[in-house]
Amino acid sequence: MSENKDFHALIRAICVGYGYCGSLQDDGWRHVTRYIPERGYVTVDDFIDWVFMAEGEQWFGNPRAMIRRERLRSCFITYMGSPVVHARRLRWKR
Known about the structure:
There is one protein chain. The chain has helices at residues 2-17, 44-55, 63-80, and strands spanning 23-25, 28-30, 41-43, 84-86. Helix content is 49%, strand content 13%. It is an alpha+beta fold. Helix 1 (2-17) packs antiparallel against helix 3 (63-80) and helix 2 crosses helix 3 (63-80). It has one domain. It is globular, with a radius of gyration of 13 Å.
């Protein structure tokens, strides 16, 4: 249960705190959870890449985006407790 609470807190922090709540793109609504695999390990960099993909935002070569990446990195590690977590920890409660 605490794993889901950590994930919910992370999602809330990146959405409310940073405005990364997903976006409407050509193929419909995208959210970071769309990219999380069923199993295996997820790194903080994987997760942040998926956040940017869900927003339809490019980060490479953008100095402001690089700063936002560092803030998101800190947020992920704070809430998830590690820069690498198992994908099952990145799930909504069922």
